Amino acid sequence: MATDTDWQLTRTFTSTSGDVHWDRLGPPGRPAVVLLHGTPFSSYVWRAVARSLARDHQVFFWDMPGYGTSQMAAGQDVSLAAQGRVFTELLGHWGLADPLVVAHDFGGAVALRAHLLHGVCYRALALVDPVALAPWGSPFFRLVGEHPHVFERLPPALHRALVREYVGSASSPGLHPAVLDRLVAPWLDGPGQAAFYRQISQADQRYTDEIQSRYGGIGVPTLVCWGEDDTWIPVAKGRELAALVPGARFEPIAGAGHLVQEDAPAELTAALIAFLQQPR
């Protein structure tokens, strides 16, 4: 998919973990859909899906603190615990009592924590290759977690090559070069380089261990979508998760890796529209 230079987040919310940039599409008064991105990405990965959903919904999207265009700062708490609290705050700021929620990767854990620990109500929940079940965290994650300050001091050229290789591996067919440029850009300057390793070092499995036993109590309609060629989190985890959530439907996406939004946007959008438009 080609890049999109018009994707901008023009609004700001000051959260307990720093300034959050956000925006919305679609006519007011339509059912609200909130999109959550994963790590190390931003709301940019949702651009095609957001514009499609905005025909019949009011679509809200945001960059989490420490990601994309939102605030990055030394000492910032960007853990799953912090992001769950920020999401709860943001929904209150938007005045959304029971939105439709679509969450990818790390954002899936954020949405699950907000629902299960903070009592946030959803009309329906769609999880796309979410971080939800132990074990997770690659050897690279563990290495960075043990030595974040060493990685923060990598020469810029080596850091750039590492980030490009890492982000590119989330796609099965490969990312358009301009899309890859856009995805890695927030991580390449001084604050961005430190923020990249900060968010990895704080990605602790204990935050999903805390909620995993509660998935059987999820009572909202749930869809689990998964790229069949995901090398970051195997598709078997998707089937396992769908089996744990009562009544959840599992939707595999052929030819897609972990970044389903980039690899198969039409197929993912069709699955989401069919699910979100079901009578509740």
UniProtKB/TrEMBL annotation:
Q: Which GO terms describe its molecular function?
A: hydrolase activity
What are the record keywords, sorted? Hydrolase
Cite the AB hydrolase-1 domain residue spans from the record: 31-265
Record Pfam families: Abhydrolase_1
Gene3D superfamilies (UniProt xref): alpha/beta hydrolase (3.40.50.1820)
> Which residue ranges does UniProt annotate as crossing the membrane?
none
Record keyword Hydrolase present? yes
Database matches in InterPro entries: AB_hydrolase_1 (IPR000073), AB_hydrolase_fold (IPR029058), Carboxylesterase_BioH (IPR050228), Epox_hydrolase-like (IPR000639)
The identity of this protein, by name, is: Alpha/beta fold hydrolase
Instruction: Please report the organism this UniProt entry assigns to the protein.
Output: Streptomyces bullii
